[in-house]
UniProtKB/TrEMBL annotation:
Residues 78-97 are annotated as: Disordered. Gene3D superfamilies: 3.30.70.330. This is RRM domain-containing protein. Keywords: RNA-binding. It comes from Microcystis aeruginosa NIES-4285. SMART domains: RRM. Transmembrane segments: none annotated.
Amino acid sequence: MSIFVGNLSYEISQDDLVEVFQDYGKVQRVHIPVEKETGRKRGFAFVEMENKAQEAKAIEALDGADWMGRSIKVNEAREREARAPFNGGGGDRKKRY
C-alpha cells in the first residue's frame, strides 16, 4: 500500500515528509512528482511505510491536519487508472480512409 498526500506546499521536501510520517512508523519511500516541462513540484506526494498498520495510523492522524499553512489530504493511494491513447482510442489508422 502507498499513502497519497495532497494539498502540499510547493516548497515541500522529502525530508519534511519523512520527519512528519516517521512519528507513525518507519518510512520506506517518499515520491514527490514534478511537472516534466518545468520541474516544479505538483503539490502532492506518495509515502510508503514499513507496514499497513503504520500507514493506517498515519492516515488517521494526518488527514485534514494543518501543515505548512495548508489542510493536507492523506488517504490510501489508488491504483493509477489506464489512460486512453492520445490518438483517440487506438483505432487502426488504415481503417479511417
